[in-house]
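Bit of a strange request maybe. I'm writing a small parser for structure token strings and I need a real example to test against, not something I typed by hand. Could someone generate the tokens for this chain?
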Amino acid sequence: MEYENKEKVIEELKDEIDVVLSIKDEITEDEINNFKEEFPMLTETEIRKEISKLTQNEKYIEQNSEEIDDVKEYKIGKKRNSEDQENADLDDTIRIDSIKIKDAISNIKSEENLNEDIKPKEIKEPEVEYIEPGRLPENIKVIRGEVKYNQLSIDWDWPYGVNRMLVLYRNDKFPTKADDSSAVKIIVDKSYGEAVGQFIIHKVKEENYYFCVFPVLEVNGEVTYLEGKKRLVVSKAPSEVFYRLKVKKSLFGSVKAVSVLFSTSAEEINMPPTVLVSKKASIPVLKSDGEEIYKFDYIKLSKDETAEVEVPVDLIRKNTYIKLFFDDERNGSMFRIIPPEKRELYFK
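Reply from user aminoacidic:
Good idea to test on real output. This should exercise your parser:
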């Protein structure tokens, strides 16, 4: 059972890593520390191995190895030589009567059982969570979210000193502040001893849900909010954007003009800014994997119309691949870029 639980935790970790990688290219040390707090069942080495597998980058494991090398080894205790053993004073040996010991233990157990029957049952008063004097309430560190079986849920680890959360969400953009009049607002109270807070939408629409969760503090009757923590949960399939390269060559085979043709199967979308990335000899996998050579602004697309944008031909070099990426990689949760075949991205 413990093995199955650990496998489930690793799958949850992979989902969190995927969310971060959909927004940016690399995992920072702060994010690794967040993973350690969020998944205490896993060691830092296990977390780094999963990051390394998903990013196909060994540097996350290598960094951990360097930290381990800095730890010094200390031996505790003193070995006793055989000569000391031979010179041990036998008068110091304590002889124990095993029968008397067993009788004493039996008597103690009998007294404990008798006392337990006589004592009245204590009635426990409701416990109150203790707040250390002078210790400030903490903010939320991580929010998790998922959609499963037409039900959306977000949860968070309750931070120290916080017993109430204000949950806001919109379907068009993140709520800007706690009193955002265009957002849906829900108050979630913490139950005694509860470690994880949760909010559930039981029937979700095929839309994007932009959450912002604010810890609520009440001091002397005055309500204040700590800084909100954001989380986007996507409940609809991303809109697909297709592109292909249109290349004109001279009679001798040299490139005279290059254009990018954009299209979509959606009714209408406003495609966010994208960039062309060039890499010599092999195709770029990530935006940071090559050189950004050209940036496209917002482009309106519909299923009935193709947009064509010309690229300065002097930016295209020989023996390179060029590939399209979103300028802000967070848009990858709402749009999906579908590239042409690999051979069509290559310039000889």
